[in-house]
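Weekly sync, protein design subgroup
Attendees: M.S., D.O., the rotation student, P.L. (late)

Item 1: inverse folding check
M.S. brought a backbone from last month's batch and wanted to see whether the design step gives back something sensible before we order anything. D.O. pointed out we never logged the input encoding, so this time it goes straight into the notes. Structure tokens as presented (330 positions):
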């Protein structure tokens, strides 16, 4: 009797949707780093990769040259990420390891969070929460935590002509907001009208917006796209919101602007040196911080995890994975 082929070994760097894991367990031996509250330590990751055929990693995992080289027989890196920004794709390609990602599935979730951060900063929700938990109640008409309207204000979307920017615009219109946008490549007027977007130069957007929301992709041109000059152009009453990528904002310049009260506050889901968050930002009461929660809804994460599984199952079946970033290795 011919011995059956050994089941492929898959390592998952954090718990993901159970529906996705069930599909993997049907065809493979699956091991998972069990602690969803922290990023897997690099030493633990490398040790796990040495015993795996396929690595199922998440956006926050740094899959650098050392991780890729840890196992000469590693067959695939399947990322639950829209872009392979934390993966050394060149190192994987040199070893003929396919790298897969997932198509955009986060639009509505990120738009929800963007508007949530606007409201949280403007209405000082975190400060109120801390006060209430401390058992303090200054009175229902006290001036102690006066905030600002979101209703009827102006929001400026930087790089806002894409799916997420348009989703934020739809929500902003529900608050009777004026929606400005700037992008290096302006959209057709018909598309602007349909989305309710008004195109203005970047400097004008910064000067006129009550909320400046960042939606640019991170690349060489957009790194530190918002720095000291841009922050000086903003209103003193304005709020900066970033749910895109941390390095689009010069974080040191942002800290200085907040300390000098050049702007009123910030809502940040992403940080320049993730997972480290600047100590000064953590101490500021007018800054709302979330640990990269843009896609953190049950629905989105389940969809993303199952797309990763689609990529893995296609590869194991000898087919080209549908979302491979280096197909030349196949």
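Designed sequence read out in the meeting:
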């Amino acid at each position: 009797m011919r011995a059956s082929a050994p089941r492929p070994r898959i390592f998952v760097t954090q718990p993901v949707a159970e529906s996705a894991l069930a599909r993997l367990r049907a065809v493979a031996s699956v091991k998972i780093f069990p602690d969803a509250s922290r990023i897997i330590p690099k030493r633990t990751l490398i040790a796990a990769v040495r015993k795996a055929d396929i690595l199922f990693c998440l956006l926050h995992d740094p899959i650098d040259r050392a991780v890729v080289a840890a196992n000469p027989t590693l067959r695939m890196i399947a990322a639950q990420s829209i872009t392979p920004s934390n993966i050394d794709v060149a190192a994987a390609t040199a070893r003929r390891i396919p790298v897969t990602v997932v198509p955009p599935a986060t639009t509505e979730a990120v738009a929800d969070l963007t508007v949530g951060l606007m409201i949280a900063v403007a209405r000082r929700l975190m400060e109120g929460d801390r006060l209430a938990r401390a058992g303090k109640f200054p009175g229902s008409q006290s001036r102690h935590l006066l905030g600002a309207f979101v209703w009827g204000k102006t929001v400026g979307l930087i790089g806002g002509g894409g799916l997420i920017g348009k989703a934020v615009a739809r929500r902003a219109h529900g608050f009777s907001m004026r929606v400005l946008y700037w992008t290096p490549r302006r959209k057709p007027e018909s598309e602007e009208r349909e989305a309710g977007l008004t195109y203005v130069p970047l400097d004008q957007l910064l000067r006129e917006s009550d909320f400046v929301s960042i939606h640019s992709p991170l690349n060489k041109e957009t790194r530190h796209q918002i720095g000291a000059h841009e922050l000086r152009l903003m209103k003193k009453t304005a709020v900066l919101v970033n749910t895109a990528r941390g390095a689009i904002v010069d974080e040191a310049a942002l800290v200085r602007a907040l300390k000098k009260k050049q702007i009123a506050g910030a809502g940040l889901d992403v940080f320049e040196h993730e997972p480290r968050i600047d100590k000064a930002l953590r101490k500021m009461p007018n800054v709302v911080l979330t640990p990269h929660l843009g896609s953190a809804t049950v629905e989105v994460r389940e969809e993303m995890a199952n797309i990763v599984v689609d990529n893995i199952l296609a590869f194991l079946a000898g087919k080209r994975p549908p979302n491979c970033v280096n197909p030349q290795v196949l």
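Discussion: The domain at 9-105+298-329 is CATH 3.40.50.720 (Rossmann fold). The CA atoms of residues 68 and 319 lie 22 Å apart.
Action: P.L. to compare against the previous round before Friday.
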